[in-house]
Model the fold of this input.
Amino acid sequence: MKKLISLSLFALLTACAAPDPYAYARHEDPDAVWRASHGRITAMERVEQAVPVAPRPSEQTSGAGAVLGGVVGGVVGHQVGRGSGRDVATAVGVIAGAVIGNQVEEQNARARAPEYDEPPAAMRSWYKLTIQLDNGGQRIVSQQEIGRLLVGDRVRLVRGRAYAEQGQP
Done:
């Protein structure tokens, strides 16, 4: 029984182990990792995108006007009639007050909101670099700052970012 548990545990642990992604590169071709992370910039493009700064004013009300209007309408409706007529007048007052209060809140919100067709926007820019890798592959990298990099420069890739290469292979 112990052998079966040990064998099962060993099989489970080895099945969960991830293969080494660089095993082939280390054993068969030690320069493969270098060629996959170094290359030359073949194209560079500056990309600009407008980013909204302020959202458009909401078309919805907060509901405070409806609540306040309903309370006032209920109090006024309660002053009318007697018995069941008073109850009906109170209910009608609450509903009418809520509708009127919501409309008043909506009008006040529109009066305070700035009027513009397009929301103000800020420009966000970054660079899209196309890199021909030494292993024959191609990578496209997007980054905000490129320093003094130019098309034709040799670069090394570290965590998805291109840096000027200091030494040649």
